[in-house]
Design a protein that fits this description.
Length: 323
């Protein structure tokens, strides 16, 4: 029995070692600046191995990974210049109940790549907040991953959308692998639904799902203030994007863990398998749904479709949900 456990443990270590070495190889590809410090530190690792301090090849390989991990941690966060959609991030100030958002994004599109760049300054009375919606956007038939957003509704009919996005530098192209190596920034965008949502429904023709939260205005306000906290900290500090740990779903997963401390261990995978976030919300009664309505039925009813009229976009979008 002990031999079986030893073999299993050795196998798992080898699998983990292979994974971290592949990550280390990717670091040298996506961050060539690391080659010099890694080479110097690797020489130290070779010396330790040859001097007998690293007694096995496996130990030496783990040492190489630690060298690469140190080099990664020393990399500065990317600083731009950024591509136009992420060139400006919002600045928010709160005076009592009055929220002022500078650089609220409100682009107008002709095509996906042809748009009028518009930013506005808007004020909102938080005492008039009436609700919040969780949104997920799917594309190319993906089932495991999606883009997640949060929209907040005010009594005067206005809505603001928080969209956590990869901040791509000029001349770069976003890739999932590049997102593991500090190639991109992280931006908390705040915009109108006629920009953030319409880009996806009317121009990219992606599948957008809107799930109203089963929350009182006070509970919705707590979510909004949490998003403002995350947005301020990230946008001011220039944090980097990470495909696994700091992506579009990280704030919602963090809020879930605050609200439900006993989430199962598998919830740690939610930032990666983020299409399951709506399921977790549903299972904990955080989403509005009809009596005995299953999640698949709710999801089918929550799909808003394409080509929603831009005039009074938010109202037209929600009429789709009432059908």
């Amino acid at each position: 029995m002990l031999r079986i456990l030893s073999i299993t443990a050795q196998f798992l270590e080898d699998v983990l070692l292979a994974m971290v070495l592949l990550w280390s190889l990717g670091l040298l590809v996506y961050q060539p600046v690391c080659i010099i410090p890694v080479a110097v530190l690797a020489a130290v690792a070779v010396w330790l191995w040859r001097s007998g301090r690293a007694r096995t090849v496996r130990g030496w390989l783990w040492g190489c990974f630690l060298v690469c991990a140190c080099a990664y941690l020393l990399l500065p966060n990317p600083r731009g210049p950024w591509q136009t959609p992420w060139a400006r991030t919002p600045h928010c100030t709160l005076d009592g109940n009055i929220l002022t958002i500078q650089d609220l994004r409100d682009f107008r599109y002709t095509t996906v790549d042809d748009y009028e760049t518009r930013y506005t300054t808007q004020t909102y009375d938080l005492s008039t907040l009436v609700g919040a919606d969780f949104a997920e956007c799917r594309w190319d038939g993906h089932e495991a991953i999606c883009h997640t957003m949060m929209s907040f509704a005010f009594a005067d009919g206005r809505h603001i959308v928080f969209s956590v996005e990869t901040r791509v530098p000029e001349g770069e192209e976003q890739t999932a692998l590049g997102g593991l190596y500090k190639r991109y920034g992280l931006a908390y965008l705040i915009g109108t639904e006629a920009d953030i949502f319409a880009l996806r429904t009317n121009y990219r023709h992606e599948d957008l799902y809107i799930y109203p939260l089963d929350a009182t205005p006070q509970e919705a306000l707590a979510v909004l203030l949490g998003m403002l906290e995350y947005a301020t900290e990230t946008n001011e500090n220039g944090n980097h994007y990470n495909t696994v740990t700091a992506n579009c779903s990280a704030p919602y997963v963090a809020m879930l863990h605050r609200a439900v401390p006993d989430l199962p261990v598998k919830s740690l995978l939610l930032p990666i398998h983020n299409s399951s976030i709506a399921e977790v919300f549903y299972n904990h009664d955080f989403l509005q749904h009809r009596e005995n309505e299953t999640l698949p039925a709710l999801r089918a009813r929550s799909k808003v479709g394409y080509d929603i009229p831009l005039q009074n976009y938010s109202q037209n979008l929600r009429r789709r949900l009432q059908k």
